Amino acid sequence: xxxAMNPGLLFSMxxxxxxxxxxxxxxxxxxxxxxxxxxxxxALYWLFSVSMPRxxxxxxxxxxxxxxxxxxxxSFIISLTAISWNGILTDWWVQWALSDLFRGLAxxxxxAGLNTIADAIRTPIWRTVIGAAALxxxxxxxxxxxxxxxxxxYWAVGISLLGALVWLIGGLANAGxxxxxxxxxTGTSTQQIIxxxxxxxxxxxxxxxxxxxxxxxxxxLNTLGSTFSANMAGEIRGVEKTQMMALFGSxxxxxxxxxxxxxxxxxxxxxxxTNSLMWAYFSGDAAYPLPNEPFPTVLIAILSRSSLLVIxxxxxxxxxxxxxxxxxxxxxxxxIFAWAFDRMLPAKFSEMHxxxxxxxxxxxxxxxxxxxxxxxxxxxxxxxxxxxxxxxTWFVAWILLGLAGVLFPFVKRDLxxxxxxxxxxxxxxxxxxxxxGLLTIAVSLFVEYSLFYAWVQAGIPTTxxxxxxxxxxxxxxxxxxxxxYHSSRGVPLESQFAQIPPE
Amino acid sequence: MxxxxxxxxxxxxxxxxxxxxxxxxxxSDFHASEATWRKFTNSAKFYQPxxxxxxxxxxxxxxxxxxxxxxxxxxxxxxxxxxEVHGEEELLQLExxxxxxxxxxxxxxxDELRTFTPAEVERRFEQEMARVLRSWCExxxxxxxxxxxxxxxxxxxxxxxxxxxxxxxxxWVTCAEGKVVELPGGFQMLTLGISNQTPWQxxxxxxxxxxxxxxxxxxxxxxxxxxxxxxxxxxxxxxxxDVCPELDADLTPRLQGGELKLAPVGSTAVRQAIEKYQPLxxxxxxxxxxxxxxxxxxxxxxxPGSDYQLGALKGCIxxxxxxxxxxxVLTQG
Lengths: 503, 333
What we know:
The structure holds two protein chains of two kinds. Chain A is an all-alpha fold. Chain A has 24 helices and two strands. Chain A has helices at about 1-5, 10-20, 30, 40-50, 60-65, 70-110, 115-120, 125-145, 145-175, 175-185, 190-200, 210-220, 240-270, 270-285, 295-305, 305-340, 360-380, 380-390, 390-410, 415, 420-425, 430-460, 465-490, 495, and strands at about 425, 430. A two-stranded antiparallel sheet of chain A has the order 1-2. The radius of gyration of chain A is 23 Å and the shape is globular. Chain B has a six-stranded mixed sheet. A six-stranded mixed sheet of chain B has the order 9-10-13-18-20-19, covered by helices on one side. In chain B, strands 5-4-3-6 form a four-stranded mixed sheet, with helices on both faces. By secondary structure, chain B is of the alpha/beta class. Chain B is about 30% helix and about 30% strand. Chain B has helices spanning about 1-10, 15, 35-45, 85-100, 110-115, 120-145, 160-170, 210-220, 270-275, and strands spanning about 20-25, 50-55, 60-70, 75-80, 80-85, 105-110, 150-155, 175, 180-185, 185-190, 195, 205, 230, 245, 255, 260, 260-265, 280-285, 290-295, 300-305, 315-320, 325-330.
């Protein structure tokens, strides 16, 4: 459930607003099946976690098989990306759950005064105050430990399912009235939106290429966190079975939930209208009639005029997104602990608090970094866009992971030979773990290609490249500084990882 | 550029490396893993300690029969899986794999296997355990004597009584079990390969009172606690070096919130002894998954953990400078 919660089971409610506009001709419902491309990566994590059932995830695997510095780079990229998303996601729910709750209620009740509250919540100062409080609460949950996180994960998955079903069932039950309600509330017909999109050159009918590119960007790229159970493999009972369920099950749950929202939106409002509406919003076309984004909280208000459904969707999106952000930052606390344990960071980061039995320094530094990203998202949104793009570096980390998979049976023969039979299995004489490593590299390269293609098309600012470079260079600097420091103290960093030959 | 070169090469301040330090390397809970012991005895070349300190639990836990089924076909079980190999080369590979994971092996056939009574299995287990331990001591002497690196060994709560005599009789190895021994640098080490009661009723499980009494008896021989190492197999209670999954009455790990429920299981007597005597260092093993370094008062307490089933060597480099300052590095190789 922890793995399922992390990728954000209701993010599809956000992406449906952007996805069709950025990739004209994309069919969001079909695109969810691109999550299947992530199964080889999940399978590689599974075999690694069975072979090396210790906390640390990719840091442990890559450090042992390739080099500690590469392990740190991969782990740092994934950790910082995940922590940054905790900060950014906090601002998501403030806008689309909290603010849009009042905006949706204004539509259903006719009380325009609620729009004032919605607008106030969207001001930077209130987003800052609410964001800081929410992240402090996140830190407190981390202090309560894994037990609390796992309990909340069950709730998060359950409530996310509730939100998706409310959107689907509430929407379908009122779909017959949608066109009339839309026209009554906005003063424009659904056909006018579609016509405007067609006139603007927007592709109304789905194409495979756009669906594929959209699937890679808005589905595959949003599975971040679904492998985090591997980062705490040392604390999980029955690793082989439990990890298999977590790693594959989380992807299946995500595919199902996202499909419910994407496909559900098409069933409720029609594929052409949904895509055209998002295009009109995203492109700023004059035909777009709403004062803000077409988020489901607002759309369900137009569809059903039911305050209850508005509240249910807002609460579901809040809890799902809050816990996704918390889950994404929770995994990295284990990684930072592992780096400190291996002397890459000061020992303070691996100290356990005597009373709480958690790495207190690591927890609050993680929360602090998430808060910085939250502030950046609020006060310097241009830079946040850069951060959002750095999610591409995460697949650089997976290229390293794939390489570790390919080489594992050959460079760590003893460890491979001592692994449980499932890890040692072969296909056509080739170790399966190596084949999965190759597939992981292929998937990662394909995702990178799709992203860079989109970036080049979009003409993104050069600052993004600097940000991507920083994500890779910072861990290299940390490694070199740690290496130099420890060499000067007498026990080189390499000593602790040195593979001592038995012979 | 010179700074960058130093950074990359890790050259650092070479003067500090030449400070007068005494270095020990400590590993524990080898549980008959051939690969782990071989790495341990080779670690002297890598870490250049004055002494290797081997913690307790040297004996394995299982004897695996390799059963000849005829036509050069052999069967065995590993991790609950049925294995089958063909020919001498594959058989040797399987034996090596099992030995590296800490299993003792014997070659047998179905007829002989049927004659194995529990007493006979016990006899064959002890026979194999003794043979392997003797070979380990010989290997250690062969590798360490030329380097001038001493080795102390001890028993652990899993080890049967006969291990003491085998270690005692071995060349080059110092049997530290139940003694206070002298180490290079003027240090003394008090060693007891015992534990408080475990659910498995191991050969050297004791009551807390017994542990306290035995520590106090040996403590009288320690000249100065400023230069003393307390080497006791079981870690101190509630020290973060003693955390492991809590078991129910059926010895099944308890779950809490979908995760293993962890609990401290160390010895209260060992903790009290550390608090009372405040040795410079205390060395422990026993709880494989609770690897770490912590402090109780001024004492640096160490549990290097163990990953013997994977043939991985987990250990700890311990440096003590001339002012009695201790620095530690947990290793994995």
